[in-house]
Amino acid sequence: MSNPQLRxxxxxxxxxxxxxxxxxxxxxxxxxxxxxxSERTAMRVVATVREAGVRGVVISGGxxxxxxxxxxxxxxxxxxxxxxxxGPKVVLSTNGLAPLRSMxxxxxxxxxxxxxxxxxxxxxxxxxxxxxxxxxxxxxxLLHEVxxxxxxxxxxxxxxxxxxxxxxxxxxxxxxxxxxxxxxVWKIYQMSETNYGEDNKELLSISDTAFEQVVERxxxxxxxxxxxxxxxxxxxxxxxxxxxxxxxxxxxxxGGRERRVGNxxxxxxxxxxxxxxxxxxxxxxxxxxxx
Length: 291
Ligand code: SF4
Description:
- It is a single chain.
- The protein is globular, with a radius of gyration of 18 Å.
- The protein is an alpha/beta fold.
- The chain has a single domain (11-287), classed as Aldolase class I (TIM Barrel), CATH 3.20.20.70.
- The two termini are 32 Å apart.
- It contains nine helices and ten strands.
- It binds iron/sulfur cluster.
């Protein structure tokens, strides 16, 4: 049964599927084999978050562009509310492999697109974005396309820093020669020991000290190109997010670990969701300013 009285935080993350066409060893999304959310259920989720007054939704997975219904979902999610107020801002977090022609149906409904590049060094990048090659070239092509033909959509470039890409991560912006194609925000993520990231932590985890050294170099690189840098640290994860998983379970982060609190449509309206409003807003607005 749906629960229109449910109070949700201002910003939520919708993880519609675990399936992906890459196998990144640091992946902290749902396991690839979990069943994807059906279109019918996804549309119920859309109605629920709109009724709850959610202001922004990050759509991720898995790889959301693998879902045939994604264009219909982003249109329904982002359309104006019955009151005439604007609908939630939609951010699509994608690995960038979808063909341009399918992105054309999605981009008009987005406020932001989030794209990943892990390293200026091709070998480092390939070790972390395992699967279809050449992934990095495809991302750069999509980035140029968005900048050229979809100027209304803002771009966040994300770089996950692990032990394998400390050398090449700070050089990521060097891959973009044309100033007009630079992202609005470049976000550096400390690798999270969650899901596949936990499986591969011996190989990939990076200490706080080593991460801060990379951050320092990224700050200089971003300042040189006039790009706004944002930094995700594992220490700041708790209380900032509310995820809705492919099976409609609501997931929050407490003590640095994900905790499933119940099905979105069956949650008690009085449940304490362990999401700190200021952290939730600060995280989204800090990453996607002016959204
Ligand atoms: S990190 Fe993203 S692109 Fe990589 S396997 Fe996970 S969902 Fe796919």
